[in-house]
Amino acid sequence: MTISRSKKVLLSVAIVITVATTAGFILVNQESRDFRFTKSIDIYISLMRELNAFYVDEIDAEKIVNKGIDAMLSSLDPYTVYYPEEDSGDLDFITTGKYGGFGSLIRKSGDYIVVTNVYKGFPADQNGIKPGDEMISIDGTSLKGVTSEKASDMLKGEPGTEAELVFRRNGTEFTKKLKRERISIPAVPYYGMIDSRTGYIRFTNFTQNCIAEVRSALTDLKEKQGAESLVLDLRNNPGGLVNEAVEIVNLFVKPGLEVVSTRGRAKQYDAVFRTNRNPVAPDMPVVVLINRGSASASEIVAGALQDFDRAIIVGERSFGKGLVQVARPLSYKAQVKITTAKYYIPSGRCIQAVDFSNPNEDGSVGVIPDSLIKTFSTRNGRPVKDGGGIIPDIVISTDMLTRFTSELYVQNMIFDYATEYFWTHPQPAVLDSLRLSDSDLVRFRAFLAEKNFSYQTSSESALEDLIATAREEKLYDDNSQALEQLRDLLGHSLDRDVAGQKAEVTELIESELAGRYFYDAGMIKYSLSRDSQVREAIKISADRDRYDSLLEGPAI
User: Fold this and answer.
1) By C-alpha distance, which of 467, 461, 468 is closest to 485?
2) Predicted confidence (pLDDT) per residue in 200-247, tens digit
């Protein structure tokens, strides 16, 4: 639809006024604030009129307004976001975990788009699309040079609609006509027993009705598989719906308990959320895993179970997002996701880590200072703190990759080699039989050479800086021999790196292959026995005396 210049201006004004009004800027009986608000709107409208009338070229009002709105909201916090009508599907996906598409993940690779993952049972999987396949075109439109974001928009659409896609695999192009479906990303991509008595649930998002998946998994583990304790894995779970977090907590605690409250400037968004059902596992020992990627609703669950002394928290400090967002409708089917309140967990603490309300003079924001962090108490009197995420009861840092293996991952060497391996090796009968041989690693070394893989160690980088400084200070010539000898000594080689870091390289490749042959569930299952945080969680849940002692309050 083509919009005239005058209509564009009216649209821009309507959107700005609606955004400002919806955000609650107008407060009754605050004349000074009312005046500043009205003044600002008048100035904005005047500016748009002047640009529309006198700017040397015809302006695109929608584009200008969208940029203005984004800039305005970015000055508040990163979670208050404007969604024009054409992007409303993005907000729906955030809240529901559903979208119309083919069930695959993609990224830009070279000139084209490459498939990085396919979800089991959805159209891409049903039509034989595999990770590593290049997307060449969609409905006759070339994807050469197209960003992954643009390609993703082209792939999404109404369920039931079709698209003709051209792929390239191992140098050969082929065409597939795929029908879009309603794609629902599972909240629980894997659950199962990790030893004879310990159940495990990987929980990845708090989307609408995710409680059904978690409850089903927990019930199956407890009643059918004989789980006596549970490891609930919330690592890298970015959160989502607050009411779903309350339901998850309610699986383990009695009804009538306050899990979280929200408090903001607009009192209509003040609320208290309580448990209201009988728990599924009121007495089962629970260990919750968190890390820096655990945020929002994940922190509500981990923090509430910690405050109730109902679970042991293991891992790394969580993200620290204690802000609540609400989606509000705007004119012309646009929407805005507004931060309306902060949330407070049972002990009374807010775990927001960044103070967006008091930016520095340069516009940057900082974490809550130590001087303002307060100590609270769990039900048993254990000390817990606010102002910086959830601190685990037992802190275990994630095993870090070496510089060499990090570069293999970042430069997609692991991914690309797994693609080659997948098409040259039959699927293992079971996951446990997936093992790389010494000859496979020899081939991987040759593969890296063929791909001209290169990287620089931290030592090499520091040496290059030293040599550059020596040249500037005219010291290089007198010391060139020693510096070049040092370069030889510190230099890396593929043979030495692959052999010296064999275990780490092997694990990365096998993990990627587990996902290729056995989907996401296979990759997760493969990692469990090699995960130091999971191993610690198993130990804690198996030792009931230690488990109980960690939850005890201070001696009186």
Assistant:
1) 467
2) 999 999 999 999 999 999 999 999 999 999 999 999 999 999 999 999
User: In the Cβ-directed half-sphere of 375, how many Cα atoms lie within 13 Å?
Assistant: 3
Annotated catalytic residue within 156, 321, 337, 525: 321
Q: Is 543 a catalytic residue?
A: no
Confirm if 236 and 289 have CB atoms less than 8 A apart: no
Q: Considering 307, 416, 497, 531, which one is annotated as catalytic?
A: 307
> In whole angstroms, what is the distance from residue 336 CA to residue 324 CA?
13
Confidence category of residue 294, pLDDT binned at 50, 70, 90: very high
Cβ neighbours, 10 Å, residue 200: 26
Arch. (CATH architecture) of 98-184: Roll (2.30)
CA 534, CA 315: separation in Å to the nearest integer?
Answer: 9
Select from 179, 167, 225 the least CA-distant residue to 201.
225
What is the rounded distance in angstroms from the CA atom of residue 232 to the CA atom of residue 17? 45
Per-residue pLDDT at 31 = 67
Buried b (16+ CB within 10 A) or exposed e, 318-350: bbbbbbbbbebebeeebbbbbbbbebbbbbebb
Residues 6+ away with beta carbon under 8 Å from 49: 9
Q: How far is CA 416 from the centre of its chain?
A: 23
Provide Rg for the chain, Cα atoms.
Answer: 27
539 is written with which tokens? 């130990």
In degrees, rounded to 5, the angle at the alpha carbon of residue 91 between the alpha carbons of residues 85 and 95 is: 150
> Which residues of the chain are in CATH 2.30.42.10 domains?
98-184
Task: Quote the tokens at residue 106.
Answer: 């993609």
Q: Kindly report, residue by residue over 477-499, the tens digit of the pLDDT.
A: 888 888 888 887 777 778 888 99
Can you tell me the distance from the alpha carbon of 208 to that of 97, in angstroms, rounded to the nearest whole number?
7
C-alpha 199 chain-centroid distance: 24
Instruction: Take residue 126 and report the two structure tokens written for it.
Output: 């049903």
Q: What is the C-alpha to C-alpha distance for residues 127 and 308, in angstroms, rounded to an integer?
A: 48
The yes-or-no answer on residue 465 being catalytic is no
Q: Write the burial class of residue 507 (CB in 10 Å: 0-12 exposed, 13-18 middle, 19+ buried).
A: middle
Query: What is the value of pTM for the model shown?
Result: 0.85
- CATH 3.90.226.10 residue ranges for the chain: 190-331+339-398
H, E, C per residue of 435-492:
CCCHHHHHHHHHHHHHCCCCCCCHHHHHHHHHHHHHHHCCCHHHHHHHHHHHHHHHCC
Mean pLDDT in the chain?
89
Matching residue, tokens 């959320």: 273
CATH 3.90.226.10 is the classification of domain 190-331+339-398: yes
296 flagged as catalytic:
yes
Catalytic residue among 294, 296, 318, 511: 296
